[in-house]
Amino acid sequence: MKIWVDADACPVVIKDILFRAAERTRLELTLVANRSVRTPPSPYINMLQVTAGFDVADNEIVRRLGVGDLVITGDIPLAAEVIEKGGNALSPRGELYSADSIKSRLGMRDFLDNLRASGVDTGGPPALSQSDRNTFANQLDKLLAKNTATTLRGR
Fold this sequence. Notes:
Elements: E1 3-6, H1 12-25, E2 29-33, E3 45-49, H2 56-64, E4 70-72, H3 76-84, E5 88-90, E6 96-97, H4 99-117, H5 130-154
Parallel strand pairs: 1-2, 1-4, 2-3, 4-5
Antiparallel strand pairs: 5-6
Helix pairs in contact: 1-5, 3-4
């Protein structure tokens, strides 16, 4: 398993949790963004800077994604592509997207996009709370533990 981060919009506190997890588990973590993102020195943590442009980082993540890899993103269309390709997608708030849940999430996203296009102010998401951080960390730990157990069984 590799961990890919849609890093342009990923909150710093979530990146910090991911940095610690990469060190602890010795899994490869790659942040993908169209601008440089500061990372701690580590053999497990990489930064991949892509050119600016619509969905360039998303497309690069999907291109490099392997079956069973984990992608951290709040981008619903990217999460849908990840699931379709056999990966796992986790939001910075700790929501693990599934084949079932992503369909309703895409529908809601499209509905809100239509509202915004017609001039309705739908507001943005609330600030990341301590509860969100804890949910993310707990969900990440579950996924990493499951990966470790699978890896050990495969040996």
